[in-house]
Design a protein that fits this description.
Elements: H1 3-9, H2 20-28, E1 38-45, E2 57-61, E3 72-75, H3 79-87, E4 91-93, H4 95-102, E5 110-113, H5 118-122, H6 125-128, H7 146-154, E6 157-161, E7 167-174, H8 179-195, E8 206-213, E9 219-220, H9 223-227
Parallel strand pairs: 3-4, 3-5
Antiparallel strand pairs: 1-7, 1-8, 2-6, 8-9
Helix pairs in contact: 2-8, 3-7
Length: 230
């Protein structure tokens, strides 16, 4: 453990479960990198993703955005292509975009698709899937309203998906954000997770939750407060 990391740990009461406001202020005090670190949230849910109804997946547009510039590629044609371009899409195409992806050119971060283009997207599913870029209706990236999808993604949409051990990780802001904005983004994210609670989930839904920066130790949150966010 480095001297820097030890100094950061000393700023955290490891015996305490912090409120969202407290945790947001603490992570602000943990800034140590020369770049604008990402504020990251990590939750462990009491779900079994092997059951389809407990595969937690969705998206939320954070009130203060993520602080990250997101490049969006859109599969659309005709009027929908024009709408995507007007909304700020970085790349819009059909067959040409398929070929670009087959050639290994990824000058974008997220893919949006109009429903009538999903046949094309299916050709490259094995490429996009492992990269976490495959469009999906549950995250709002397969939709006839491509303009709104582009605006949401550009405006701070965060996609989330539980892994096989029940964990969800996401970036919800930047260290340069005010503490209150971090707390409000965190509350919105947790609210989205709570909305996806499956009826079949038994016991305490959120088992653990922690907030951290890219280069910092984690700050443990009070899960009882989080469970009450509706």
């Amino acid at each position: 453990m480095s001297k820097r990391y030890k100094q950061l740990i000393e700023k955290i009461d490891i015996t305490k479960a912090y409120s969202m406001d407290e945790a947001s202020n603490v992570v602000k005090s943990l800034v140590s990198a020369k770049f604008d670190e990402t504020v990251e949230v990590a939750l462990n849910l009491n779900v079994d993703p092997r059951h389809a109804d407990q595969m937690i997946r969705g998206a939320i547009v954070l009130p203060h955005g993520t602080g990250k510039t997101v490049r969006v590629a859109v599969f659309a044609k005709g009027v929908k292509a024009d709408e995507a371009k007007a909304a700020g899409a970085d790349i819009v195409g059909t067959d040409d975009l398929v070929q670009q992806i087959k050639d290994g050119i990824f000058n974008f971060d997220i893919v949006v698709a109009a429903p009538d283009c999903m046949g094309l997207v299916g050709q490259i599913g094995r490429i996009l899937g492992p990269k976490g870029m495959m469009p999906n209706p549950k995250t709002g990236t397969v939709t006839p309203d491509v303009a709104t999808a582009v605006k949401n993604v550009k405006g701070g949409q965060v996609n989330f998906r539980v892994d096989k051990k029940g964990n969800i990780h996401a970036g919800i802001g930047k260290a340069s954000f005010d503490a209150n904005k971090i707390a409000e983004n965190l509350a919105s994210f947790v609210k989205a997770i709570n909305r996806h609670k499956p009826a079949s989930a038994k016991g305490r839904y959120i088992k653990t939750c922690a907030l951290s920066l890219t280069m910092s130790p984690a700050v443990r949150l009070d899960v009882l407060q989080l469970i009450d966010i509706k």
